[in-house]
Amino acid sequence: MSVRRPNPSAALMDLAFAGLAFASGLFGAPLSYAVLVFLGAAAAWGWTRRDVLARMELMHRLRNGALALGLMAIVLGGAYWLGLTIRGLG
Questions:
Q1: pTM over 0.90
Q2: Which secondary structure element, helix H or strand E, spans residue 26, and what is its range?
Q3: How do the domains of the chain map onto residue ranges?
Q4: Nearest 10 degrees: CA dihedral of 67, 69, 75, 77?
Q5: pLDDT tens figures, 42-78
Q6: Contact indicator for 69, 31 with CB cutoff of 8 Å
Q7: Which own/partner pairs from 42-48 qualify as long-range (CB within 8 Å, at least 24 positions apart)?
Q8: Could you tell me if residue 28 is left (phi over 0), alpha (psi between -120 and 50 degrees) or otherwise beta?
């Protein structure tokens, strides 16, 4: 079994999108901005993992993609809500 190499650029990109979602809430941006952050994060997720996703079988790719997008929505939604709460709007 081969050892997977970590991808620090993907991790930093994920962190940056979480920061954007938090900042959107902190500065009171409408929910539509948080949705745009999610769409950008989903596109970046697919792009940074395109080589690995291309090697997966279709059903495995769909299952992992759905799980990743669901977890991404939870994390980014939580970051947005946390920003709203700290601002006093949540």
A1: no
A2: helix 8-26
A3: 9-87
A4: -130
A5: 999 999 988 888 999 999 999 999 999 999 999 999 9
A6: no
A7: 42/69, 42/72, 44/13, 44/14, 44/17, 45/10, 45/14, 45/69, 45/72, 48/7, 48/9, 48/10, 48/13
A8: left
